[in-house]
Amino acid sequence: MFGYYFQLGMRSLRRNPVLTGLMVIAIGFGVAASMITYSVFRVVSANPIPHKSSQLFTALIDNRGPQYNEKGEPPEALTYTDANALIRAHKAPRQTLFYQVALAVLPEGERSLPTKAIGYATNADFFGMFDVPFQYGTPWPAQMDERRAAVVVLSHELNQQLFGGANSVGRDIDLSGHTYRIVGVTGHWDPKPRYFDLFDGSAFDDPPQIYIPFNRADDLKIDTAGRNNCGGAPNTGVGSGREGWLHGECSWIPVWVQLDTPAQVAAYRSFLEGYAADLQRAGRFSWAPNVRLRNVTNWLSFEDVVPPESRIALIVALGFFVICLVNTIGLLLAKFMRRSAEIGVRRALGAPRREIYSQFLIEAGTVGAAGGVLGLLLTAVGVGGVGLLFAPDIARLAQVDLSLMLLTLLLAILATVVAALYPTWRAAKVQPAWQLKSN
Amino acid sequence: MQIKPILAALKRHKAGTVLIALQIALTLAIVCNALIIIRQRTEHLSRPTGMIETDLLTVANRWVGVDEKATPSLGKTDLEALRGMPGVVDATYANSYPLRGGGWSTSVNITPEKKKEMAHTTLYFSDDHALATMGLKLVGGRNFRPDEIDWVDPKAFDTTPVVIVSKALADKLYPDGSALGKVLYHSGATKPSTIIGIVERLQVPWTGTWAGNFAENAILIPRLLTGNFGSYLVRTQPGQLERLTKAAPALLFKTNRMRVIPDERGVRTFAQVREQAYKSDRGMAVLMGVVCAVLLAITAAGIVGLTSFWVGQRRKQIGVRRALGATRHDILSYFLTENLLIGAGGVIVGAVLAIGMNLWLVSHFEMERLSLLYVAAGVVALLLLGQGAVLAPAMKASRVPPVEATRSV
């Protein structure tokens, strides 16, 4: 019977073209609006590292005190002093620190102009902790951090640009006037949002292009290209210029640790508190330890990484979709009740209510499918149009893929069938006698 | 017009009545809130930066493989080259400029104690050519003198003896209008800075809501920052902007090729800066506008659809009424009144929903309160929309001939 009812549904689509057209358009627009906004929302609200999001923690220490901190929260990164102290303490199975560097790849061969390369100064643990894939070579070993070696890991994209994608491991490259040995090339790696570097506001930036050892960058006095948050607190740094700044209270280095068991987490938390308590005793802090250990999920929600535009647009689009459905309920009611006579005849000839239900729900499903197809077209147009409306870093997140297409169709059909429940119930309640009498 | 028979008839069409009313209610709620979003997003679009925005070019520059101490001499060479170009009126170097997105923000006070900040402000580090290049209007005091300009390491910057401030900041610090010649302390400053000039207006680099409460608080510092990153601003003669968009970076590369001027956002006319700065705001406003338009169209279509169905259902009754002496006008006004009643029910619920939704959005996002004026406008618009939508089916109903009463189907 499904095939037959489907055919009936198709025929009925053509019978009241205006009414049906209205429904299809309403569903199409509703589903498209929801899908376009959802296509952005699903990326910005995604968990970028689902299997490890409860094992990776960022460690934060309040070095401002109750008078200058923001609503009791420590700054979103550590000072040079504290970041290095935590790494040296080595209390977690793995720990990393980093800051953004903007270097320039010097001209060589056919390239006559330098090109910019943005990335991180970090340590060896970074790659393993954040699951960075490698196309060629490996991360540099931990000893190279100790030796403050001049090595570099390139991104897949930069390797493509500089070496045409060839295996460049072992070659030398000149970055801002200093030579580095290439030890590895990552695969394409672009977690969105870039959870570990929300401090710099880089959640949706282009993927990093280079990674160099933190200690090497420190030796070369490479300044941060990211954020530097000195707050309003008086700077207790000694000396002036770079040294004064380094040893002052400016926060600019995020630190992450990997803690695999609850016991490790508890141990690390008490270590952090102890560290802050020591500083209090030493007189650097005049307040009780105020530390945080936030895992990826917690950090993403604390930093409110989903842009408000995306949330509001999704809410409005869903409201819009609900209105389209209410509209569809009304129109389906009109469409079905017009056919009371037909229903009366079917019922009189012995069709049970169940049959009426399946006929009309399938018919509604057909309308929904037509709306879904229109919705798909509009979604495709809309996702293309997002680029015209939104900032490029957000706009390029919107993409139509197979799962989105299926979801669009499914949502349209399902929503229409749900919307059809009431009209169908009314249709099934039609009394055969009433309809037959008037004829 | 008698309302009672209409209400009696509506009781027999509860579902349809409720659906139309509900749709009107939801539409009102969404449209009102979308309008607030549009207003909030567009009110800043036309905010003036205080600069003369035509014939202004920005070039982002990053030195490559250069010692920080060498950047002042390189910068001076660049500025001389730019200022010497035909078609260039003036040029300057700065850490940031209005609408750029990133910059230096700090708190400011008129006493050295930092217990409480009086205002938040941005610091623009530039030279004595800044006023002429940016096209700022001096409303009091004087410009920097060349001998007051120097280069400073941003990490070692403390303060300068003289500053120029925007009028908004001057009025905030000295509400009696006596700012000129007085002093200010920005965060981290150990010595006072004397206000030697006041410009009419100068916007901060940020457009976000968070910068909204200090959007026009700016201090010009007569220092150029060393370090490898900064922006050149170039004021061109009329008609020369397009040529210089290519010629200026070409000249810079000719002067010294060890630099990076990004392909993306490296060289921008100020018109492009403005467009990119407000792109998300404009995008959001356009999106909300489209949503409103489509929503109203769909609601109107829904009303047309259901009313047409009712008219079809009631042809016989309409015929009877006509046969009993009702005029066409009576039938027309019957359907119009019926729609008005449903619409009134819908907008009452809708107004409550709109305010509720707005309160929720206010508590979760940086949204403005919904003014009752918007709700009132929305109510009128939806009632009119309903009347407009019902007009065609009602006209059709009024054309039903009295003879319909005698037909059995």
Task: Summarize the model shown.
The complex is a heterodimer of chains A (439) and B (409). With 439 residues, chain A is α+β, with helices and mostly antiparallel strands. Chain A is built from 16 helices and 13 strands.
Give a written overview of the molecule.
Chain A has about 450 residues and is an alpha+beta fold. Chain A is built from 16 helices and 13 strands. In chain A, strands 4, 5, 6, 7, 8, 9 and 10 form a 7-stranded mixed beta sheet that branches. Chain A has a 4-stranded antiparallel beta sheet with strand order 3-12-1-13. In chain A, strand 8 (about 170-175) and strand 9 form a beta hairpin. In chain A, helix 2 (about 15-45) packs across helix 15 and helix 12 (about 340-350) crosses helix 16. The mean pLDDT of chain A is about 85. Chain B folds into 2 domains: about 5-45 and about 280-405, no CATH class; about 55-275, no CATH class. Chain B has helices at about 5-10, 15-40, 70-85, 130-135, 165-175, 240-255, 270-275, 280-315, 315-325, 330-365, 370-400, and strands at about 55-65, 90-95, 105-110, 120-125, 140, 150, 160-165, 185, 195-200, 220, 225, 230-235, 260, 265-270. At the A-B interface, helix 2, helix 8, helix 11 and helix 13 of A face helix 2, strand 13, helix 8 and helix 10 of B.
As residue ranges, the low-confidence spans of chain A are none
Query: What is the rounded distance between the termini of chain B?
Result: 28 Å
Cα-atom radius of gyration of chain B: 32 Å
Which structural class do you get from the secondary structure elements of chain A?
alpha+beta
* Main sheet attributes: strand count, strand direction, barrel closure of chain A: 7 strands, mixed
Secondary-structure element pattern of chain B, one letter each: HHEHEEEHEEEHEEEEEHEEHHHHH
Shape of chain B: elongated
Averaged pLDDT of chain A: 87
Give start-end ranges of low-pLDDT stretches of chain B.
none
